[in-house]
Amino acid sequence: MSSIDELAAYNQQRAQHVLDETGILNIWSDCGIRAELVGSMRMGLLMRHLDIDMHVYSDPFSIAAGFEAMSRLAQNPRVRHIEYTNLLDAEDQCLEWHAWYDAPDGDTWQIDMMQIHADSRYAGYFERVADAIRASLTPETRSAILGIKNEIPEGQKIMSIEVYQAVLRDGVRNFIDFMEWKKRIPAQEIIEWMP
Question: pLDDT band at residue 88, thresholds of 50, 70 and 90?
Fold first, then answer.
């Protein structure tokens, strides 16, 4: 196993500890909301950017339940900051919840929780994307993805889906080639692609 693989496995364990220590999945469930992991954690591709992404769903949709969940999460002394944005009138029809958790080792994890309206065309979509990417990985493509993600400079904003698309669709295998690939791709706020 390479050091990149070991780091990804280690970060997966650390992310699971954040979920366990905050109890966030149980908090959502107790508030009548189903939480689904998406993104890098669902795919086992966590690297240096310490974030956990989830989409959460309630039937009926309830803003109040979202605030109740965040109120309970805020009682954890390691949760230092929570943000809320109402995007129900936007394309993705969601509430964005972001929480920052200070881990005992000194690292800060960002927990991104999108409370998606059932009428949104993105309801369930990114779960399917994550599962399709995970199913498409080979040892070579997984290594390329982890290597590229590991080389992204601190503070540089790159969506992970761009890395997955470059590697799985277009055969990119290293960070230098990825940055050249990125120059040729038009910027998008939401990238709709799956292998």
Answer: very high
